[in-house]
Amino acid sequence: MPLPIAPRDHQRANAESLVAGGGAVVVPDEECTTERLATELDRILTSPGRRDEMAAAMRAAARPDAAEQVARLIEDHTRG
Question: 37 and 46 in contact (C-beta within 8 Å)?
Fold first, then answer.
């Protein structure tokens, strides 16, 4: 559920990249109701195959060392 007031709608862009990779479903804020969330969750939780595919897609997209990479990039640039 991307925050609709986020600058330049960057949260939606981030979420859409996960959707494109098969690891997520986007529910726009204006469509976020209890019923919609229940429907989306039910689709995922009642389909082990889909759940497994989504989990694998998220693992493939994960960057566990992202913070370290950003810190290294900053250090490299501050050294000149």
Answer: no
